[in-house]
Amino acid sequence: MNDPPACAIYKDMENITETLIMEHGIFRDVFDQIERVMDGAPSATEVKLLASVVEGLLSRHGETETNLAYAALDHALADRGALDRLHQDHHEIDHQFKYLQHTADAAEARHRLKRALAATREHFRREEKTVFPMLEQTLHPDTLGMLGRKWMESHSAFAPA
């Protein structure tokens, strides 16, 4: 079977922050669609299925952020307050999804998923407002570019041919 075509959206990303902001935008669109579909989900099982899709996306995204962007910034910062808050966000979002998986009531599952999506959107906003500017001020442009290329390598389905 042929390799998937390169993704033009990511092809021209210059650095890790641009790439992660683009990924956040795509996730927000997915979240919007999940919320539209979720309102018609009659069972907790269906809501949990939607939640598992989001969890899968966020798991890989969170690992990439932690291993590339946060790790690079962690080495450069004396004040870890902003990063500690973002790590706390990751744990709180994970908790929301885990709690949702133990819910048998469809209305409660929908409520939990909406809360998890709202918390994730707020986390993205916090990153874009505080952490990404710190990355761009603290790290050399070549380092940001190298981190962006590492992101591309870790998402080989999107890598240019």
Number of helices: 6
* Measured distance between first and last alpha carbons: 15 Å
| Element-level helix/strand string | HHHHHH
CA-based gyration radius = 17 Å
Number of strands: 0
Biggest sheet descriptor? none
Low-confidence stretches: 1-10
Bin the helical content.
over 70%
Shape: elongated
Question: What do the pLDDT scores average to?
Answer: 82
Structural class computed from helices and strand pairing = mainly alpha
Number of domains as seen in the coordinates: 1
How much strand content do the residues show? under 5%
Please specify the SSE layout and strand pairing.
Layout: H1 8-11, H2 16-38, H3 44-76, H4 81-101, H5 106-138, H6 141-154
Helix pairs in contact: 2-3, 2-5, 2-6, 3-4, 3-5, 4-5
Feature tags:
mainly alpha, 6 helices, disordered N terminus
Structure write-up:
The chain is mostly helical and 161 residues long. The chain has one domain (8-158). Helices cover 80% and strands 0% of the residues. The chain contains 6 helices and no strands. It has helices at 8-11, 16-38, 44-76, 81-101, 106-138, 141-154. The longest helix is centred in the middle third of the chain and has 33 residues, at 44-76. 28% of the residues are buried.
